[in-house]
Design brief:
Layout (H helix, E strand, L loop, with lengths): L4 H8 L2 E6 L3 H13 L5 E5 L14 E2 L4 H8 L4 H22 L1 H4 L6 E5 L4 H22 L5 E3 L4 H4 L6 E5 L3 E2 L2 H14 L3 E4 L3 E6 L4 E5 L5 E8 L5 H4 L6 E10 L10 E4 L4 E6 L2 E6 L5 H4 L8 H15 L7 E11 L6 E4 L4 E5 L5 H19 L1
Parallel strand pairs: 1-2, 1-11, 2-8, 4-13, 11-18
Antiparallel strand pairs: 3-7, 4-6, 5-6, 9-10, 10-11, 12-15, 12-16, 13-14, 14-15, 17-18
Helix pairs in contact: 2-8, 2-12, 3-6, 4-6, 4-12
């Protein structure tokens, strides 16, 4: 791509900080940097027309962990680690709402639910047994008692079939992630941040006093420091960072008359999740059907997962209710052998803020700020 002198100077001259990735982490990093040091020239480079990973492709759950997920985490991590992460998710959600306002992101606290079938009675009983303990921990974080409670009386109200038990999370909510990214983008642009879409960073070179970036568009970029915020795609630029891509497949129905669902729902230890968007059902998950295939940075759909989603819609979620699928898509998350995020300095002038573990909506605002603070130390 050939640039004019004006374009070269205006867009690419005297850049202080290059942020790679225009998702929730990258934009929040830019927002924090501008709030801290308004004079900084910040360029956010995004290879896609829109954020490529999961920021505006996810299900929009404003959640922090279901009972079974927290019990599973406690079997692998210390109590301090598990609830420290829950606290970061909760604080991140409050920061997101504070930064953008509930109306801009279409936030609703309609509660969340975890479903248990007849074959999951042991899991349900284990969760039920630990509810008082989990609620004590959550109260110290959220400031409200009895966040988790049993809600079997709502099974018929929601119209489910083959669901034996239901646990409610009263503090869970939902957002519109398209509106979130648009609001974030407009907010940082209003502060003078350059957000350039269709600009793919292929390599970063740390030369000690600055960084240089090569792009697919043959534009060389120089900046004082760089932050990689590409989550599931991080290894393409930083091969030594421990992030495994995880594709999540999603579908949404056409409007359903008299839809009974309202809220966010977790099923099968969180591998499936669904919610209402008005009178539609958004349903995603199923990567546990074929983990290896879904460990990819390729956006796409598989018949195996899509068939399972439709089967569960017909038999469990919307039994006896006619529905039509209107649209299907996928997003790429960043996972690892631990659920902790990676916010670290990779070299003298390059840092990263990645590995959201499928909780980007909850934790992304905080992780972006933490990444920004790292960068400020480098310049």
């Amino acid at each position: 791509m050939q640039l004019s002198f004006w374009e070269k100077e205006t867009y690419f001259g005297n850049i202080d900080i290059l942020i790679v990735g225009s998702g929730i982490v990258g934009l929040n990093a830019a927002l924090h940097l501008k709030n801290k040091q308004p004079q900084l020239k910040i360029l956010v480079a995004e290879r896609g027309l829109l954020p490529t990973g999961a920021s505006s492709k996810n299900a929009g759950f404003a959640c922090f962990g279901s009972p079974s997920e927290l019990l599973e985490d406690l079997s692998h991590h210390t109590e301090e680690q598990v609830f420290g992460l829950v606290e970061r998710r909760w604080k991140g959600l409050q920061r997101l709402r504070q930064n953008l306002g509930d109306a801009a992101i279409d936030y609703h606290r309609w509660g969340g639910y975890e479903l248990f079938t007849d074959t999951q009675l042991d899991l349900y009983n284990a969760c039920l047994d630990k509810l008082p303990y989990l609620n004590r921990q959550l109260q110290s974080i959220v400031g409200e008692p009895d966040i988790y409670r049993h809600a079997d009386h709502k099974i018929t109200q929601f119209g489910f079939k083959h669901v034996a038990h239901l646990l409610e999370s009263t503090a869970e909510g939902q957002i519109d992630t398209g509106k979130m990214i648009m609001a974030l983008t407009q907010k940082v642009q209003a502060l003078g941040v350059l957000v350039l879409n269709g600009l793919e960073i292929q390599e970063l070179h740390d030369v000690g006093t600055s960084i240089t970036a090569t792009t697919a568009q043959s534009i060389n970029i120089k900046a004082r420091a760089a932050l990689v915020a590409t989550n599931g795609f991080a290894q393409k630029l930083l091969p030594n960072v421990s992030v495994v891509p995880a594709r999540a497949q999603v579908l949404i129905t056409k409007p359903i008359k008299n839809l009974k669902l309202k809220g966010t729902f977790h099923y099968d230890c969180g591998y499936y999740y669904f919610r209402n968007i008005g009178n539609r059902v958004l349903f995603g998950g199923g990567r546990n059907l074929d983990f290896k295939t879904e460990e990819t940075t390729e956006l796409g759909l598989t018949e195996l997962v899509q068939h399972k989603l439709e089967e569960l819609l017909s038999t469990v979620i919307l039994p006896g209710t006619p529905y039509e699928v209107e649209h299907r898509w996928s997003g790429i998350m960043g996972m690892g052998n631990q659920k902790t995020t990676i916010v670290e300095q990779v070299s003298e002038r390059v840092s990263c803020a990645v590995r959201m573990g499928g909780m980007g909506v909850a934790i992304g605002s905080l992780v972006g700020e933490e990444g920004a603070e790292l960068v400020l130390k480098q310049i």
